[in-house]
TrEMBL record:
UniProt keyword Ribosomal protein present: no
Domain of life: Bacteria
Keywords: Hydrolase
Gene Ontology molecular-function annotations: hydrolase activity
Name of the protein described by the UniProt record: HAD family hydrolase
Organism: Streptomyces tuirus
Length: 269
């Protein structure tokens, strides 16, 4: 039986220049590989060592990129190693099979959302009305599944985010602040449900996961074993559980450490 590795991408395996956290002297900084270009500019990186570890992991396990990104945003990432047969996008709203969204899975998810939480239009209208234009730069809807704001983080009123979280909770939604983005995501829209579906299809008898944000909580808890880095929402909250390995590493070197430990767990299984 294969092992399945479902890992978040941004700030878990890949990092923007602002999130690299290269605190060592310049001469000792790791060599970096650009894995995403957007509008003709390099956007996301991993270390060259991490790239090799990911290649080895893709050969040894069913590696499933698992992201809150839309399909379009995910497809511009050029990860090293074998092309993943499965990928989870839009926080579980889309299950990609060889790069194409599975229509049956998407239909199942949208039916669950319609039945279990407030509609997207209501949440989007609240965000447009309540957010302060002083710190909001963009309003976005992702694949007609959830909404997010792009903000100026230094101007953001964090009490507003807490108030939004309470408002959303009462309507069956979750709020997550990641870098310059505030996500509002339906609670039934989960990475873990999509991971379980891939495990069912592949017959995987071991599931491993990694992630750094509130939206990765269910994924980490659903896996047999999970990893989280020393940065991100979960680290800020001190989140842990018996099956989760908490790493002290921060930034792009945390991504390298996560991949090394995932590969070790697969090879030792």
């Amino acid at each position: 039986m294969p092992a399945l590795v479902a890992s978040d991408l941004d700030r878990t395996l890949i990092y923007s220049s602002a999130a690299l956290a290269l605190t060592m002297p310049d001469a000792r900084a790791p060599r970096l590989l650009c894995v995403e270009v957007h509008e003709s500019k390099p956007l996301s990186y991993m270390t060259e060592t991490a790239a090799q570890l990911l290649t080895d992991l893709g050969d040894a396990a069913v590696f499933v990129p698992t992201t809150t990104r839309t399909i379009k945003q995910y497809l511009r990432i050029n990860l090293p190693g074998p092309a993943p047969a499965y990928a989870i996008c839009a926080n579980g709203g889309h299950l990609l099979v060889d790069g194409v969204s599975d229509p049956d899975w998407h239909a199942e998810v949208t039916a669950r959302l319609a039945d279990q939480c407030a509609p997207l239009d209501e949440v989007q209208e609240h965000l447009l009305r309540a957010a302060d234009p002083v710190w909001v730069r963009k309003h976005r809807v992702a694949d007609d599944l959830f909404a997010y704001l792009v903000v100026e983080r230094e101007l953001l009123d964090e009490d507003w985010v807490k108030e939004l979280a309470v408002w959303a909770e009462n309507r069956g939604w979750t709020v997550s602040l990641q870098g310059r983005k505030i996500y509002a995501v339906p609670k039934p829209l989960t990475k873990s449900a999509a991971m379980r579906e891939v495990a069912r299809r592949t017959g995987a008898d071991l599931t491993l996961a990694a992630g750094d944000s509130l939206l990765d909580t269910d994924l980490l808890l659903a896996a047999d074993q999970g990893w989280r880095p020393g940065h991100g929402e979960l680290a800020d909250a001190g989140f842990t559980a018996p099956s989760i390995r908490v790493l002290p590493d921060r930034g792009v070197l945390a991504g390298e450490r996560i991949l090394r430990e995932l590969l070790g767990a697969v090879q030792g299984a």
